[in-house]
Amino acid sequence: MTKTTFLEVYQKNIAPKLEKIDLFLKTEPEHLNIHTTASLLYISEEEVNEIMKREKISSINPATFFMIMYHGSSELCKLLKREWERKSPVEYSIEDISYIYNLPPHKVYSAVDTLGIENITSETIYELFSCIHLDILQ
Questions:
Q1: Model-level pTM greater than 0.85?
Q2: How confident is the model over 82-110, as pLDDT tens digits?
């Protein structure tokens, strides 16, 4: 077991994927297709096709990309779906952070207590992540 913080996990495993999607949608939206969508969302091309068929999506554009993401099975898709379900609030509750990032509530409570913060916002969330300690199996 290795000790780490959720901030390290977020910076290594989540943020680069989100940045890649953001950059692609801003610079190359015309290149959205089944292959690139599957690659960006870490799901199979078969899954993209199944979602498109089930949701009656005839082509992929930035709007339908997010529909596919919402229904995708990857951990990234699930995380973003959970965030959308919480409606991306200006302030997050401890329960929001626990739910969105699939973190044990007691670890989020402990981090909030350690920091002595009253509000979890986009300005404080990374500091919060740095106080959430995790054991990672190698």
A1: yes
A2: 988 887 678 899 999 999 999 999 999 99
> What is the residue extent of each domain of the chain?
7-74, 85-136
Count Cα neighbours of 49 within 13 Å in the Cβ-side half-sphere. 4
pLDDT digits (tens, 9 = 90+) for 52-92: 999 999 999 999 999 999 999 999 999 999 988 887 678 89
- Nearest CA to 72 out of 37, 97, 24 is that of 37
69 torsion bin: left (phi>0), alpha (psi -120 to 50), beta (else): alpha
Sequence-separated (6 or more) residues with CB below 8 Å from residue 65: 25, 32, 37, 40
